Amino acid sequence: MLVKRSLALAAVLLAACGLRAIPSPDAGATGGGGATAGGAETAGGGETAGGSTAGGSAAGGSNAGGSTAGGTGTGGGCMAPQDCPAPANATPACNAGVCTFVCNAPLLACGSACCAARSITAGDRHTCIATDQGVALCWGGMFAVGNGGTAASLTPTPVQGFGDAGVVAVSAGNVNTCGLTSGGAVKCWGAGPIGSGTPGFAAQATQTANLGQGVTSLSVGLAHACVVADGGAKCWGLDSHGEQGCNQMCQSGGPMQPVPGPVTGLAYDVKQVSCGGAHCCGLLDDGGVRCWGFNVAFECGDGTNTQRIVPVVAHAFDAGVDELFAGWSTTCARTGTALRCIGTNGDGELGNGMVSGALRYTTPVLLGPGLTSVGTSGVGHHACAVVDAGVWCWGKNDRGQLGDGLMTSQNRPVRVLGLNEPMAKVAVGAEHSCAMSVSGGVWCWGNNSQGQLGIGTMGGIQLAPQQVR
């Protein structure tokens, strides 16, 4: 009864902010995990027994080559493209007497230059990247893309509000995103928790309070976020299930923490945070793991399914963990090239070859030894990984988000078909997935209901990767 009442309260609060409620993880599909920024975007996936084969053509333009979206006009009149200047890696264009340019694939236009992706994240119905030019680009749903308004964007659009602060990593929640700058500051935008002390929608990147310049890890969950700042963990946003890790005594204005506050017992020796649907975990310098939050599916790793309002030792993970990945009601940890997960498994979210209820013990994801990057999300019910430069996904697949050409959930990793160049990183949203190539291009697949695939259209489902333009 307590859980139901708590969930009902969360539903009311999230609805007030335009966010999704947190259902019981065993009532339907679960999974996903909050991608972390500032070097916490991670690790990959390998070949599995019974997985789909490599190859397969990608429907609709996932091949390399060609050109991507045009850049902003460079001013001046023109009669022909040769009259126009163009930045490096671009082809000049003349449109209605105005000079523009078209970036050579796989690069994307970011203002007056052409950019390569360096960090990628996905929210409920939007996607964002940080580029090699320090510019953040977003596309997809309303209220989530930081374009100065509320409208959706069907193609990559620069996030406003960063000025000269170079963005090095991004992490997305339900309808909000935060960016980490090269100076260690954090700015957030969208309709979720911003951490500025002022509630409500932020149309552009807005400074998060109480953090200074010492942030080294960033992770946004469903309706909350945490960072590592000067070696200690701090969180803000929703606290209906102990997401703040502060004994629910850190805020006085109800279950929403408006600015970052310290996590109890984690003031130092923390090197990474990862937030899921309603929980977070911190990785310590010695490889130990501490988790806090909902824990209804054993996701905190302490052997119980009791809500934890302060961090507890995640005994399910041995010391020596290298990286953490929190999902909807799952937690995964990478040690070397091995990935282990714990939590709900109703749609095969643990990737262990089984479909079951929530598991209180960790099981290995059936990946090969070439793991280099992992994508989980606090809004999604699936996960993906990069293994030997290919992408593998597992879990819920009702919108083609696994990229294997089917719409059937998978309890073990299956190969994403049609990615014909080496991949470096992967990100998962609620019902879509995206991969970033070594060369900095981006491909997305799955649900495109609000333009989250970045292909210039809205609506429909893409079962194969499409190149973002």
Write up what this structure looks like:
With 469 residues, this protein is mainly beta. It has one domain: 7 Propeller (Methylamine Dehydrogenase, Chain H). Helices cover 3% and strands 42% of the residues. The chain is globular.
Please give a quick description of this structure.
With 469 residues, the chain is mostly beta strands. It has a single domain (2-70, 84-467), classed as Regulator of chromosome condensation 1/beta-lactamase-inhibitor protein II (Methylamine Dehydrogenase, Chain H, 7 Propeller), CATH 2.130.10.30. Helices cover 3% and strands 42% of the residues.
In the predicted model, the low-confidence regions spanning at least 5 consecutive residues are 1-67
> Which topology does CATH recognise?
Methylamine Dehydrogenase, Chain H
Gap from first CA to last CA: 48 Å
Which term fits the overall shape? globular
Strand order of the largest sheet: 1-15-16-17-18
State the CATH class.
Answer: Mainly Beta
Tell me roughly what share of residues is in helical segments.
under 10%
**Sheet with most strands:** 5 strands, antiparallel
CATH superfamily: Regulator of chromosome condensation 1/beta-lactamase-inhibitor protein II
* Count of DSSP H/I helices: 1
| Class computed from helices, strands and strand pairing | mainly beta
Mean pLDDT: 87
Number of strands: 34
Number of domains: 1
Strand content: 35-45%
CATH architecture: 7 Propeller
